[in-house]
Every structure is written in structure tokens, then in C-alpha cells.
Amino acid sequence: xxxxxxxxxxxxxxxxxxxxxxxxxxxxxxxxxxxxxxxxxxxxxxxxxxxxxxxxxxxxxxxxxxxxxxxxxxxxxxxxxxxxxxxxxxxxxxxxxxxxxxxxxxxxxxxxxxxxxxxxxxxxxxxxxxxxxxxxxxxxxxxxxxxxxxxxxxxxxxxxxxxxxxxxxxxxxxxxxxxxxxxxxxxxxxxxxxxxxxxxxxxxxxxxxxxxxxxxxxxxxxxxxxxxxxxxxxx
Length: 235
Prior knowledge:
Blueprint (H helix, E strand, L loop, with lengths): L12 H7 L9 H7 L4 H11 L2 H8 L6 H11 L18 E3 L2 E3 L18 H12 L3 E3 L7 H7 L5 E6 L4 H13 L4 E5 L9 H6 L9 H7 L3 H9 L2
Parallel strand pairs: 3-4, 4-5
Antiparallel strand pairs: 1-2
């Protein structure tokens, strides 16, 4: 058999025009970044690029060798969806009943301390996002917004309050009373910190609350001026 010869031709302008697909430009920087984030790992990469090392490691890290953190992530990665074949999926309902109320899905936002150190909107962003998604938001005892502030920004959200039981029991119970008065309907009691863990990343970074302006942190912050601007100029 003879060798087949490939015939070449150059497409016309109309043919090329039909193949061209230009994305509509997104001028809002935050929306542009989020539009490119397809997974939670993409969001982590964005946070790592835009946040100084000490605040990022505080949020991303754990105590000692971080073996518990590693095992927790591994456990979640082993969770698999089991698809049901030949079922009607035109309407999907992920809602569940949790503590007497309906949630849109079986997840919630856990408490995090010093939230605004990571992102300037902090608890406001978390509480309103949880409200809009129909899931619980848990305010930490070590939050950077008050109980009343969070209740005011998301009065119709499912707001929970996380409590560290301090030696000063009256002070602890005063927080519980404030949360109840503000409409928080669930108390999350943390019981695993009789002794603070050795957070080695924080020690190595010289982490302080609030972050200190040292030669090391200033050098690390130079490529991240937006973070420092927000941190220094917002209440």
C-alpha cells in the first residue's frame, strides 16, 4: 500500500472565529482568584501565597509532629462517595437533621481562634458564608469579633459558640450567658487543652498574638503588602 499523504489547508477567518473563546475579564481580584480555585487545595495555595508565613502556619499547622493533623486529613481522604446507579438524580437533597434543626448539608464551620489574623473579614465572613450555605458557624472563645458582633452580622444564621472552660468559672459562664442572650443556640465545649500543645511552627516563626513587626516578619511581608495593609488599617 502506498503511504497516505496528509493534506494541509489553512483555516479561514470565520472558522478560526468559531473556535475562539475568550473569558470575560474579572477585574475584582478576589473574585478572579476564587474563580480559578477548583478545590480546597487551590484555596490553600492562594492563602499561602498571600499570607505571611507566621499567620499562615498558625492556621495551617498543628502541635508537635502534627501526626494527629496528618491522620485526620488521611481519614477524610479515605471517605468515598458510593454512587447509586439508575436512580433519579434530577433532584438531590443533601440536608440533614442536626440537634433538632435542618442543615443544608452535614458539615459546619469549626471554631478558629484569631480569625482576622488570617483574613481581615474574619468571623464576619465565616458567619455570613455559613448562613448563606445553611450550615452552622461556630464562634471561638478566642475569636477576634465579639459574640454580639457576630450575632448582629448574621442574626438569622445557625450560630454556635465554642467555650474554653477557664479556671475563672464565673468568667466562662458569663460568656455562655452572653451567647445565649445573643441567640446562639448550641454550646460546643472544648475539653482537650488542659495543657497547650507545642506548636513547633509557631515557635520557629516567632509567632506572637498580635503578629510582631520584626526584621524577619517585615522581610516575609514585603511580597504581601495587601495583608499588612488590611491588618494595620482595619479595626
